[in-house]
Amino acid sequence: MGELESAIMTQLWAADGPCTVREVHEALTPDRPLAYTTVMTVLDRLAKKGLLTQERQGRAFRYSPSRTREQLTADLMLDALGGTTEPSQRVAALQQFVGRVSPREAEAIRAALDTQH
């Protein structure tokens, strides 16, 4: 995702519910000048990518994330591994990843694996 897409997703994850283009635009413009149409275009693109759900409410659309931040991060990690079809390369990539996480993160991985198996 690009920087503006990430900022929009962060805003929507923090919101209490679905947001209109205007609400997202108003939340982002104190930090940077953005055209309303730019925000509308990016929201539409994110919806077409499947990252947002889009529901009509009157004349406006309301947008909400289709997945949590954690689910999206896991999807991105799995997509990266999916580019490696050789099992030994996948294992090596996972070992590299685990070797770079903090001890606290490694413990969280161990706990998650214990609950899965």
Q: What does this protein structure show overall?
A:
The chain has 117 residues and is mainly alpha-helical. It has two domains: 3-65, Winged helix-like DNA-binding domain superfamily/Winged helix DNA-binding domain (Arc Repressor Mutant, subunit A); 69-116, no CATH class. Helices cover 64% and strands 12% of the residues. The chain contains six helices and three strands. The chain has helices at residues 3-14, 21-28, 36-48, 69-82, 87-100, 103-116, and strands at 19-20, 52-57, 60-65. Strands 1-3-2 form a three-stranded antiparallel sheet. Helix 2 crosses helix 3 (36-48). The radius of gyration is 18 Å and the shape is elongated. The two termini are 33 Å apart. The model has no long low-confidence stretch (mean pLDDT 93).
State Rg: 18 Å
Supply the number of helical segments.
Answer: 6
The CATH fourth-level homologous superfamily of the largest domain: Winged helix-like DNA-binding domain superfamily/Winged helix DNA-binding domain
Distance between the termini: 33 Å
Query: How would you write the strand order of the largest sheet?
Result: 1-3-2
Biggest β-sheet: count, sense, barrel?
3 strands, antiparallel
